[in-house]
């Protein structure tokens, strides 16, 4: 799905680990089955040619499924009955999955390319020591706008999105954590606020935004913005970059209050037997 590519080393690190330690990642009852890797990822989030290259070099077939929100992904994993070898949770959802015992710890000895990872992306608070995850992509959340319909002076702050002028004009991502953060920052609070009173205030603030929201979507935002179906969107930096590449009249910025930096990570669901 979307977002700024930091680099493909993170993918290759885990892919190499799957190859080197392939027997340990296949459930015992399936050891004699077709060699298959089941990858559950965001849409538009890996080059199909890279998957083909992996298949050619390892002899493994990749079954690639996609999701459009962290919550949908976690629900499916939590319900069980899936065959996924790799999933891609964002920072906060990775932490939730660790707390719910849904992930296997990684064997770093089977990840020879891990040493090439940027140290700035490692040992973050949602997975200290990268016990359960390898960084995949990172980026920001901001506002994508159509310069033919919106001037930069009209939108400088998150709170500007609540202007009645933008009634039925806003596309927003289908992400509870992200939109709660937008609401908190529009009120002058931290994106990581935990005070119940302030969280309730932010919840009510989001309800007040509803008249301005045209659609609550994720992957379709870039397509709709390219088509000119809305003048404004709250979206991820990578989605914005792909949209701007095809539509030079689109622009992306971070509101003056700032934005959260997100990290998406590769992890292994706990159904596997090591």
From TrEMBL:
Name the UniProt key words of this record, in alphabetical order.
Periplasm, Signal, Transport
Quote the CDD domains the UniProt record gives.
PBP2_PotD_PotF_like_2 (cd13663)
- Which superkingdom, per the lineage? Bacteria
Gene Ontology cellular-component terms listed: periplasmic space
Say if the entry is tagged with keyword Nucleus: no
Q: What is its main location?
A: periplasm
Q: Where in the cell is it found?
A: Periplasm
Identify the InterPro entries for this entry. Answer: SBP (IPR006059), Sperm_putr-bd (IPR001188)
GO terms assigned for molecular function: polyamine binding
Q: Which GO terms describe its biological process?
A: polyamine transport
Q: What is this protein called?
A: Spermidine/putrescine ABC transporter
């Amino acid at each position: 799905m979307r977002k700024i590519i930091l680099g493909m080393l993170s993918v290759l690190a885990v892919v190499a680990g799957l190859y080197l330690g392939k027997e340990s990642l296949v459930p015992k009852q399936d050891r004699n089955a077709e060699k298959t890797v089941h990858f559950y990822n965001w849409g538009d989030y890996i080059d199909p040619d890279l998957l083909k290259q992996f298949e050619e070099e390892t002899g493994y077939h990749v079954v690639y499924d996609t999701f459009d929100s962290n919550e949908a992904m976690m629900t499916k994993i939590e319900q069980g009955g899936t065959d996924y070898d790799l999933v891609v949770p964002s920072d906060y959802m990775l932490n939730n999955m660790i707390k719910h015992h849904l992930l296997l710890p990684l064997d770093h000895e089977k990840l020879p390319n891990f040493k090439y990872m940027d140290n700035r992306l490692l040992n973050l608070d949602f997975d200290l020591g990268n016990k359960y995850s390898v960084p995949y992509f990172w980026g920001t959340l901001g506002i994508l706008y159509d310069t033919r319909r919106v001037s930069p002076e009209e939108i400088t702050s998150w709170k500007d999105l609540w202007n009645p002028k933008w009634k039925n004009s806003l596309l927003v991502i289908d992400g509870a954590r992200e939109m709660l953060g937008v609401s908190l920052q529009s009120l002058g609070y931290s994106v990581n606020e935990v005070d119940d009173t302030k969280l309730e205030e932010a919840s009510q603030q989001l309800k007040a935004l509803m008249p301005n929201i045209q659609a609550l979507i994720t992957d379709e935002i870039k397509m709709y913005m390219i088509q000119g179906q809305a003048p404004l969107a709250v979206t991820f930096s990578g989605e914005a970059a792909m949209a701007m590449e095809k539509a030079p009249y689109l622009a992306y910025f971070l509101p003056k209050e700032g934005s959260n930096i997100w990290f998406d990570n590769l992890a292994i669901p706990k159904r596997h037997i090591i």
